[in-house]
Automatic annotation (TrEMBL):
Residues the entry annotates as binding substrate: S60, D145, N157
GO MF terms, alphabetically ordered: ATP binding; glutamate 5-kinase activity; RNA binding
Gene3D superfamilies with a match to the protein in the record: Acetylglutamate kinase-like, PUA domain
Organism name: Tahibacter aquaticus
Family: Belongs to the glutamate 5-kinase family.
UniProt-listed HAMAP family: ProB
SUPFAM superfamilies: Carbamate kinase-like, PUA domain-like
Known pathway: Amino-acid biosynthesis; L-proline biosynthesis; L-glutamate 5-semialdehyde from L-glutamate: step 1/2
Gene designation: proB
GO biological process, one term: L-proline biosynthetic process
A Pfam family that the UniProt record links to this protein: AA_kinase
Highest classification ranks of the organism: Bacteria, Pseudomonadati, Pseudomonadota, Gammaproteobacteria, Lysobacterales
Protein name: Glutamate 5-kinase
Keywords: Amino-acid biosynthesis, ATP-binding, Cytoplasm, Kinase, Nucleotide-binding, Proline biosynthesis, Transferase
Length: 384
């Protein structure tokens, strides 16, 4: 029976979620990985799939798994290069652990924070994750610890999960941990600690409640979870923190009930996304479209296809923010801005052509849209 001090509440509505699972839930007592708590989490993922929902899993545990596989060499547990090697050895074990629970394919996706800062690699990562979801696969994301020196020092998959949630336009970030949620103090050392069920915003007072790491296996504590909730909130995504070792909490989660802590998003996801698109710096390039494309973009819900493009000015790279304009009263007028899936030279070659012709014209394709509707915001007559 659960001994949680948190009250039961309704889980926020969601269709696509990122689920972060820490090392403390996967580590076996004797070293390596255990299915003890992974099974309950896998059952939640499976029930979500049956309900038509999509899940991206951010899973730790590679270093712990690798350490168990080279147990005969204890010196391999120390030093940054050794930890990177252990991550490389253990990553396949992490993927195999999750694959055993599912009939659908499990896909390994290794990222660094640099992959998500660089606009071209950001688009590539997002396109890959979206395609995996459309194929019905379960993406299992982890930091690319074998090359990401700074990220491995931080060991911070909580913040990575928040970044991935924004990357895939998730509705919800779920963080599974080995405690019931946020408390006013460390519940392991302070019996008077009060359970916090709902957090409207992560203030300095809330941050002061964060303790250190609670496990010798995991390297993230409550502080990184609060940081992740803050990042998600900025992107218009709510976060829930729950106990992945509590069978009852897992059953409730599958029934859209939460026994844990809910962190609310400050803005709607759409508002946060559109605000960022409207204020992100421009690359200096412009794409000119015909009247039909302009109407479609301004009415909302349409992507920019190559057939509606009549000209390109300036230079920009794939992933750059560009201005989209049309001719009004014989003058160029800005109507939208968005992230271009193609570089300026590529757009010039495919302008006015059908999407099906892109690969034949370029020899490759990044998709049928030049600017996807999720990466586009109308600006004509819009308030800043």
């Amino acid at each position: 029976m659960s001994t949680s001090r948190h009250s039961e509440q309704e889980l926020p509505r969601w269709r696509r979620a990122v689920l972060k699972v820490g090392s403390s839930l996967l580590a076996a007592n004797g070293g390596g990985l255990s299915t003890r708590h992974a099974l309950g989490l896998a059952e939640f993922i499976a029930s979500s799939h049956r309900a038509g929902r999509e899940v991206v899993l951010v899973s730790s545990g590679a270093v712990a798994a690798g350490r168990a596989l080279v147990r005969a060499q204890p010196e391999a547990a120390h030093g940054l290069a050794a930890r990177q090697a252990l991550a490389a050895i253990g990553q396949t074990t992490v993927v195999a652990l999750w694959q055993r629970f599912f009939d659908r394919p499990v896909a390994q996706v290794l990222l660094t924070h640099d992959d998500l800062r660089n606009r071209r690699r950001y688009l590539n990562a997002r396109a890959t994750l979206r395609e995996l979801l459309s194929l019905g696969a379960l993406p299992v994301v982890n930091e690319n610890d074998t090359v990401a020196v700074d990220e491995l020092k931080l060991g911070d998959n909580d913040n990575l999960a928040a970044i991935v949630a924004a990357l895939v336009d998730a509705d919800l970030l779920l963080i599974a941990t080995d405690i019931d949620g946020l408390y006013s103090a460390n519940p392991r050392s302070d019996p008077a600690a009060q359970a916090i069920d709902d957090v409207a915003a992560v203030t300095p007072q809330v941050l002061a409640m964060a303790g250190g790491a609670g496990s010798s296996v995991g390297t993230g504590g409550m502080l990184t979870k609060l940081e992740a909730a803050t990042k998600a909130a900025t992107a218009g995504i709510g976060t829930v923190l729950f106990n992945g070792t509590d069978a009852q909490a897992m059953r409730l989660l599958a029934a859209d009930r939460l026994r844990g802590t809910r962190f609310r998003a400050g803005e709607t996801r759409l508002h946060a996304r559109k605000y960022w698109l409207r204020h992100a710096p421009l690359a200096g390039g412009r794409i000119r479209v015909d009247a039909g494309a302009a109407r479609a973009l301004q009415s909302g819900g349409a992507s920019l296809l190559p057939g509606g493009i009549v000209g390109v000015s300036g230079e920009f790279a794939r992933g750059d923010m560009v201005e989209i304009e049309t001719m009004l009263n014989e003058q160029a007028s800005s109507i939208a801005r968005g992230i271009s899936q193609y570089a300026a030279g590529e757009v010039r070659r495919i302008a006015g052509r059908k999407s099906a012709e892109i690969e034949g014209l370029l020899g490759y394709s990044y998709g049928e849209t030049v600017v996807h509707r999720d990466d586009l915001v109308a600006t004509a007559g819009a308030n800043p």
